[in-house]
């Protein structure tokens, strides 16, 4: 039975019941209508409307649940699907919505994976060019400046030495940018050493004091998972430096049942009611690539901000790797 006929029959049944009561009941209507008769008719009308509303609410309840799910759905925060319930048409609508949501999430995950893969490739290319082209050019400039400074008279030599120091600082900055774009230590020494180097860079940048703690005996992680953890830690610390006005930040990586958990905490002003920026949405997109979840909220004691990334680890896969 279609939704139209179900609603029609609900209303028709209420009207028929009211008509039968008027025809078969002892109530008569005078001309003009008496007050008691008007009260009885009014009570009957109210009862009829209440019964009709109750029947419609029961029949349309699955659609209301679907509407709530539609208004709260966020593709970056996958959640439970609405339960398929109700009669044939309503159940088919909910099932079609769930199928559409599955397809949208899969397509977004695939497009995000392609975009982030292209982004990482572009980062590697830029880092390589900074290292090979700009870095080597500045190194050659430093050598030329040293040779000129050694032959220059004393007043000019001091100026050349200052230029040499400025050039050396620029070379160090370019190398630091290249390391952030392409963390070679991650591929060479692993996630623990890469996080230690990342924390060291932020700690010496004139911002908040940055500490870190990494559990021993972490489960084996694939390259994609390690890169996601590293990039989320990098973005989290960048947000602390730019927005938190914090005096201290901490990065922790723990083994938890079924996976690993990354925490970035600070003692700054907190997120408050500020909308999510591009950095946090980027974290969520990266997390979806490895089936992880990102949570953002106040830190311990309600002070500062805490970013929590929980990454599931398949124990069967790692047992196979261990073999």
TrEMBL record:
<keyword id="KW-0597">Phosphoprotein</keyword>
<keyword id="KW-0808">Transferase</keyword>
<dbReference type="GO" id="GO:0000155">
    <property type="term" value="F:phosphorelay sensor kinase activity"/>
</dbReference>
<feature type="transmembrane region" description="Helical">
    <location>
        <begin position="39"/>
        <end position="60"/>
    </location>
</feature>
<keyword id="KW-0902">Two-component regulatory system</keyword>
<keyword id="KW-0472">Membrane</keyword>
<dbReference type="InterPro" id="IPR011712">
    <property type="entry name" value="Sig_transdc_His_kin_sub3_dim/P"/>
</dbReference>
<keyword id="KW-0067">ATP-binding</keyword>
<dbReference type="Pfam" id="PF07730">
    <property type="entry name" value="HisKA_3"/>
</dbReference>
<keyword id="KW-0418">Kinase</keyword>
<keyword id="KW-0812">Transmembrane</keyword>
<dbReference type="InterPro" id="IPR003660">
    <property type="entry name" value="HAMP_dom"/>
</dbReference>
<feature type="domain" description="HAMP">
    <location>
        <begin position="57"/>
        <end position="109"/>
    </location>
</feature>
<dbReference type="GO" id="GO:0016020">
    <property type="term" value="C:membrane"/>
</dbReference>
<dbReference type="GO" id="GO:0046983">
    <property type="term" value="F:protein dimerization activity"/>
</dbReference>
<dbReference type="Pfam" id="PF02518">
    <property type="entry name" value="HATPase_c"/>
</dbReference>
<dbReference type="InterPro" id="IPR003594">
    <property type="entry name" value="HATPase_dom"/>
</dbReference>
<keyword id="KW-0547">Nucleotide-binding</keyword>
<dbReference type="InterPro" id="IPR050482">
    <property type="entry name" value="Sensor_HK_TwoCompSys"/>
</dbReference>
<keyword id="KW-1133">Transmembrane helix</keyword>
<dbReference type="GO" id="GO:0005524">
    <property type="term" value="F:ATP binding"/>
</dbReference>
<dbReference type="InterPro" id="IPR036890">
    <property type="entry name" value="HATPase_C_sf"/>
</dbReference>
<protein>
    <recommendedName>
        <fullName>histidine kinase</fullName>
        <ecNumber>2.7.13.3</ecNumber>
    </recommendedName>
</protein>
